[in-house]
Amino acid sequence: MAKKTAADSVKSALAGKPIGTTQGRPSALVDTRVIYCGDNLEQLQKLPENCVDLIYIDPPFNSNRNYEVFWGETKEKRSFDDRHASTKAYIEFMRPRCEELHRVLKKTGSFYYHCDWHASHYVKIMLDQIFGENQFQNEIVWRRHFSHNDPKKYGCVHDVIFYYVAGKPYIWNQQFVPHAESYIKSHYSSVDKDGRAYQLVSCSAPGEGPARKFGDKGIIKPPVGRHWSWAQEGVDELIAKGRITFTKTGMPRLIQYLDEMKGVPLQDSWDDIPPVNSQAMESLGYPTQKPIPLLERIINSSSNKNDIVLDAFCGCGTALVAAENLGRQWIGIDVSPTACRVMAKRMRDVCGVKEDDKLWRIGRGFVVRDLPWSEKKLRELPPFEFENWAVIALGGRPNKAQVGDMGIDGRIYPVSATPKKTEGELEFMDVWYPIQVKQKDRAGRPDIDSFEAVMMREDRQKGFFVSFDFSSDAMSEIQAFFKKTGKSIIALTVKDILEEQIAYKLA
Predict the structure, then answer these.
(1) Cα(487)–Cα(481) distance, rounded to whole angstroms?
(2) Are 69 and 316 within 8 A, CB to CB?
């Protein structure tokens, strides 16, 4: 897109209108407000060409270590040590996916690839080959830590975000950050009769240009080697509005008010957005969770209202939440059923959007597709995925760590539970119900006996037990436990959950 001149900026400020923004519409060829569960390569191949306005991905880093993606889990480790034996294998894994992402990106669209130092240099080469070196715009540095203790080397405190465009022109909305207080004090020290802080700035820019008439001051030539920043029409408008003053030598100066300035144009080093820590209200305990303001900045910069935003490695869905909050259409893809259910729950709880097929068809709700709804598929899930599926299906919170969970796979907090802050984590008052999950054909009496011990130890009045089925001895023990203690164990089969809550209401 053409760069805005100083004259454009002043004219825009006087008119109160942004320059160069357009209103986009979602494509009639692709469904939006959809979360797909499955391999993103397979799903991307189903999308038509040139259908997406903005793509952001934050794929697992090739860190050559056991990088635990979900809640510090030991039962599901997404390790490039296991899945990708080398950086070469990682690039081979990412290349066909990035090629598909390039294919579905509109010619006016933008692409952001979030990574860290482990493979960033190799990723850059790959993206140059796919998008073209001339389409590379920025290497954005995001400071995600304020300090990091790395023995015998400089602390690694930043991530890298590669920014590419598919072609030109492309969507670009300049973003601004506030001026530093020191800058305001040094540059906007003058105050007019109305109490508005201002500074006087040059009316010229480098390059030769003709003279202009400045009201009663007559025709004035620009300084040697410079030109006036506006055509005669712009000069006349500024003179009429009293925005031009003159120095003792008769040279014009523009009165620039602080309250009209948007701030400093955003640069490629971002140190003003803190990471998501355990004390943040948006924290889900997800190790790679990115802050919503980070995604909002990217979405505001490279898309307009109603444009389509795609995240093909959704994780916990921050990009989708940001897109929904900013009035964009969106598509999410993730291979993990647990991640997809977390995304869906977050979309409902944070954004207030209903997961409903009928509402989705009229553009008001969203849907989750390709989740493993059948008992057969649920039996094939890794234990961690199955446990999280069951807990979230009941509206509960999975444990952040299942090491030493003492027989509790999750907790349900009723609406009446009042949240409070404790030791940096979001905890609740003493109103919660334990959930135990067994991925077995038939839970027996010993399983129930163990859960009863949990109920007694934690002094819970109610608990939930999920399995594919229960033996008659198990059900008899549940009844006897209630008669003896008054404490209820709700036994739920997978079939109960599937039939009672139906697919799109599952979590």
Answers:
(1) 7
(2) no
Domain positions in the chain: 6-176+265-369, 179-260, 375-505
Instruction: Please name which of 182, 179, 163 lies closest in space to residue 171, comparing C-alpha atoms.
Output: 163
What are the distances in angstroms from CA 402 to CA 65, 70, 434, 439?
20, 11, 13, 15
Dist. CA 391–CA 386, nearest whole Å: 9
CATH class belonging to 6-176+265-369 = alpha beta
- pLDDT tens by residue, 382-403: 888 898 888 877 777 777 655 5
Distance CA 471, CA 458 (A): 25
Q: Are 222 and 230 in contact (CB under 8 A)?
A: no
Q: How far apart are the first and last CA of the chain?
A: 44
- Fold annotation for 375-505: 3.40.1340
For residue range 421-441, what is the model confidence (pLDDT) as tens digits? 444 444 445 678 999 999 999
Query: Any idea which residue has 């294998």 for tokens?
Result: 89
And the tokens for 182?
A: 């020191």
Q: What does the alpha-carbon distance between residue 252 and residue 394 come to, in Å, rounded to a whole number?
A: 70
Q: Report d(CA 17, CA 490) in Å as an integer.
A: 60
pTM reported for the whole predicted model: 0.69
- CA-based max dimension of the chain: 102
